[in-house]
Amino acid sequence: MRHVSRAVVTALLMASASGLTSQAYAGTCTFGSSGEPTLQATFNSMLGTAAVNVQTACLSDGSDANWSVTGGTLGQVDIRVELAGNKDTNSFGVYDTVTGTRYQLFEGTDGTGATGDVRVKLSGGQWFLSLKDDQGGDAGSWTTANQVISSGVFGFYLGTTNGIFYSNTAKNSDGTDHMYTYGPLNGGVTDPEWTGDYIQAWEDLSGGGDRDYQDFVASLTDITPVPIPAAAWLFGSGFMALFPRLRRRIPAA
Question: Where are the domains of the chain?
Answer without folding.
Answer: 1-22+227-253, 25-226
